[in-house]
Design brief:
heterotrimer, A mainly beta (215), B mainly beta (90), C alpha/beta (250), A: 215 residues, mainly beta, Sulfite Oxidase, Chain A, domain 2, five-stranded mixed beta sheet, 2 helices, 4% helix, globular, B: 90 residues, five-stranded antiparallel beta sheet, three-stranded antiparallel beta sheet, 9% helix
Chain lengths: 215, 90, 250
């Protein structure tokens, strides 16, 4: 019997130099120029979770943007999926060291969702169904850099990958791309999310290897 | 909204916890600050495949304990627990 | 014996050590028992597990947990590993790792899902698939110390090809009652047709709740949910049911 203690790691924190096991390769990997430092390519789509997987019925689903002054902008599933969508193909970089290339999504750009939202906020705290949160500077959600995605690889987004809909902000480590997204709170001051308030980086740029606070 | 269990028992966190605390933390008892349930950490629901370790209450699913290790530091949040009762070494 | 050995490590930090494969045995089509020599092994309790770490030439490293299958035996440690075909680690351990190869190992760990010979209450072991492994360690420990504590084993397995420890469990263990429940296909002329296990089967094969047995349940998350739920419904105190769920990352 086996269970996963943690996902693949390169090196290991605070331990002695590891011993190489002859003939162990793990999953096939190759280094490409698109691979940020310290990352390995995977062709799987690992499922990482910090809690139970919510199953949100689209009939009950609602997505809300709330500004720093308390103004709410909400969309139900029909309204949301009627918005113009895009089909970005992007690379994903998970802080647990896997990267996955050329993933195909369909979703609504945050530019569309924020178009009629009046705000002077600099930060966003993204809330999920369940208790997950993550913080992102508002400018990183704009200018074609982020989507609320509801289809992956030509199919409905599965609950274990964040369906009905998740944030997709692929230029940052993937924990920022909150699964089961429910609302975005716009804030004048940065407020840390679930992983950020216990050691993970506030910004999380994989190309600068901003994994932990202080990186 | 319904939820799907995809957790392990706190048992599964024994190695990582003992490497850090120097004692078997899975037999340590605690009480959930949210619902008052008492348990040993082996009985918690463990989510171990994410960026850090998350132990949740078997009664109410609230986060009891989180642990993140960077190359230089260990971050521990046990704020979901009223207390942890650890056997004193003989 | 084992307890004294374990407490010998108290205060000493848990560390990775190098374990060398000394033998391997076929347990079923997909499962192998791997025998490692672990210098300085402090002994263990039945039901404990170890963490295994594998590192590739390029530094890539990953870690899994495996239950110990054997009773304490000096510096020899046995793990029984079931191959998950699309897994990353288990196919390496079952098919590639050869005698004299090394892995890193850390343990023993986990003091909750364990059976100690000084426990006097009756014991119910409920295993699904490769969830039999830590329960087998308890049976072997019982045997090793000559315990007369009454044990009952309920082993739920897909089909005979997946059955673990067949010859070992064929032997005569006085006071150990065994019930095998096949869910997909059975041995020839088996009286029970294959199918899901039921509350009444668990009730018949186990102990009455007022005997206050300790119940050890190990298997996949779904199996443990079902079996532990049935035991509670049959009247067993939740506090007397110890569970060990395992995932399928392989």
């Amino acid at each position: 019997m086996s269970w996963r203690m943690e996902t693949a790691c390169f090196g290991e924190w605070g331990h002695d130099m590891p011993i190489v096991s002859r003939g162990f390769h793990g999953r096939a990997r190759e280094t490409r120029h698109r691979l940020p430092p310290g990352q390995y390519e995977t062709t799987d789509f690992p499922v990482l979770s910090a809690g139970p997987t919510p199953r949100v019925n689209p009939d009950e689903w609602e997505f809300t943007i709330r500004t720093e002054t308390g103004t709410r902008h909400s969309w139900n599933w029909a309204e949301f999926t009627a918005l113009p969508s895009q089909t970005p193909t992007v690379d994903l970089h998970c802080v647990t060291k896997w990267s996955k290339f050329d993933t195909e999504w369909q979703g609504v750009s945050l530019d569309v969702l924020l178009e009629d939202v009046e705000t002077s906020a600099d930060y966003a705290l993204v809330h999920s169904y369940g208790d997950y949160t993550t913080n992102v500077p508002l400018e990183d959600l704009l200018d074609g850099k982020a989507w609320i995605a509801y289809r992956y690889d030509g199919e409905e987004l599965a609950p274990e990958h964040g369906g009905p809909a998740r944030l997709l902000v692929p230029h940052l480590y993937f924990w920022k791309s909150a699964k089961w997204v429910q609302r975005i709170q716009l804030l004048d001051e940065d407020e840390r999310g679930f992983w950020e308030n216990i050691g993970y980086h506030d910004y999380g740029d994989p190309w600068r290897e901003q994994r932990y606070q202080g990186d | 909204m319904t939820v799907t269990p995809d957790f392990l028992d706190g048992n599964a966190a024994a190695g990582d916890l003992e490497a850090l605390f120097g004692t078997d933390m899975t037999v340590v008892s605690g009480r959930c600050r949210g619902c008052g349930e008492q348990m040993v950490l082996a009985q918690t629901h463990a989510y171990l495949d994410g960026p850090g370790m998350v132990l949740r209450c078997p009664g109410c699913d609230r986060v009891l304990l989180r642990l993140v290790r960077s190359p230089t530091e260990m971050w521990l949040d046990a704020g979901g627990l009223d207390y942890l009762k650890i056997p004193a070494p003989a | 014996m084992a307890r004294a050995a374990v407490s010998g490590r108290l205060g000493d930090r848990l560390r990775w050590t190098t374990a060398r494969l000394t033998d391997r045995r076929i347990e079923s089509d997909a499962a192998r028992t791997l025998v490692f020599e672990v210098p300085g092994w402090p002994g263990h309790l039945a039901g404990q597990h170890v963490d295994v770490r594998l590192t590739a030439e390029d530094g890539y490293s990953t870690q899994r947990s495996y239950s110990l299958a054997s009773a304490p035996d000096g510096e020899s440690v046995e793990l029984t590993v079931q191959r998950v075909d699309d897994g990353e680690v288990s196919p390496y351990l079952t098919d590639e790792l050869a005698v004299d190869d090394v892995v890193e190992l850390r343990g023993p760990v986990g003091g909750w899902f364990v059976w100690r010979p000084e426990q006097k209450e009756p014991i119910l072991l409920v295993g699904g698939g490769s969830g039999l492994v830590p329960l087998m360690a308890m049976i072997r420990m019982r045997r090793a110390v000559g315990s007369r504590t009454p044990f009952r084993l309920v082993y739920v397995v897909r089909s005979p090809e997946y059955q673990l420890f067949v010859s070992d469990l064929r032997g005569d263990d006085p006071g150990l009652d065994k019930t095998y429940l096949y869910t997909r296909s059975t041995p020839a002329e088996w009286p029970r047709p294959p199918g899901r296990f039921t509350a009444s089967e668990l009730s018949n094969a186990g102990w009455p709740p007022d005997f206050e047995p300790t119940c050890y349940v190990c298997g996949s998350t779904g199996f443990v949910e079902t079996a532990a739920g049935l035991l509670v419904a049959l009247g067993h105190q939740p506090g007397r049911i110890r569970t060990e769920r395992f995932g399928s990352s392989g």
